[in-house]
Specification:
Blueprint (H helix, E strand, L loop, with lengths): L6 E4 L14 H6 L9 H16 L1 H6 L1 E6 L8 E9 L3 E8 L4 E8 L23 E2 L2 H10 L4 E5 L17 H4 L6 H15 E2 L4 E9 L7 E15 L2 E12 L5 E12 L4
């Protein structure tokens, strides 16, 4: 088994036109940032990248990761991912920007086998045309009480996030050649199922704790179920924890599960 190694690249904001306007220069600067933020799921993918290069499909089938974004990463700026400890079954990583800031950290593991997968609940599905309530605390409490609606998704070349590097040819072979879903897309599903249930903008993806159960081939239809696990306020920001399970539509077998932590309502600038 290969040992993951450090790497470096330039950050890539794939979604400057996203409904979440924190990925636009104008809104991000209004909240005190230097410019549009690279998605948290993309930053997480940078931390997971050494696992993909070393372990390939094995990590997609049973790997786990806890990724935490501590400070912004900006489009086009160079970064490096350093491994502070680890071996052939796991590592601790830190993403450092060109100013030397420790922007994000991760614990990534390749267990011998995955834990038991989540069970499919059969939650009611989202109606994409339905009006969404603004993300107030009252609205989020109501969603926690009655449950989030499930979302249909599809992994293929038309997905919102198809890569985490600007040049598709530079993606690892397991993605560029074999066509499997990359971790930025998979973790992005945690964002999209929440945003499909409530209207948020701007908002911040902060961390995920995720577990893979199988690789997701090109053209796969998915069902994403979610529930709000916690809501709390800190320093004027409103936080949410969301438990998310991702299933293949054909057979309803679990592909991944994750817990998302996000600021769904930022303190006014």
């Amino acid at each position: 088994m290969k040992v993951p190694v450090a790497w470096q690249a330039r950050a890539f904001n794939q979604v400057p036109e996203s409904e979440n306007r924190i990925h636009s220069d104008e809104v991000a600067r209004a909240y005190g940032f230097r410019g549009a933020l690279v998605p948290g799921v993309t930053v997480s993918a940078y931390l997971i990248h050494p696992a993909i290069v070393a372990w390939g499909e094995d990590w997609l089938r049973r790997g786990s990761a806890r990724c935490v974004v501590h400070s912004p990463v900006y489009d086009g700026e160079p970064f490096r991912v350093e491994l502070e400890s680890g071996g052939d079954t796991g590592y601790e990583a830190v993403l450092i920007d060109q100013r030397g800031a420790r922007c994000a950290t991760a614990s990534v593991a390749l267990p011998e086998c995955a834990p038991p997968p989540p069970a499919f609940r059969g939650d009611p599905r989202l109606d994409r045309s339905a009006e969404r309530s603004p993300a107030t605390r009252a609205a989020m409490e109501a969603l926690r009480e009655r449950g989030l609606r499930a979302m249909r998704a599809r992994w293929d070349g038309s997905a919102e996030i198809t890569r985490y590097l600007r040049e598709a040819s530079q993606m690892p072979a397991v993605f560029a050649e074999r066509g499997y879903a990359n971790p930025a897309f998979v973790l992005g599903l945690t964002n999209w199922v929440l945003a499909g249930n409530v209207r948020m903008s701007p908002w911040l993806h902060l961390q995920t704790e995720s577990q893979n159960f199988r690789a997701i081939p090109n053209g796969t239809e998915l069902v994403v179920e979610a529930r709000i696990a916690d809501l709390f306020e800190k320093r004027g920001h409103e936080f949410v924890d969301v438990d998310v399970s991702i299933f293949l539509l054909d057979g309803l077998e679990a592909a991944a599960q994750a817990r998302l932590r996000a600021i769904y309502r930022l303190r006014e600038p």
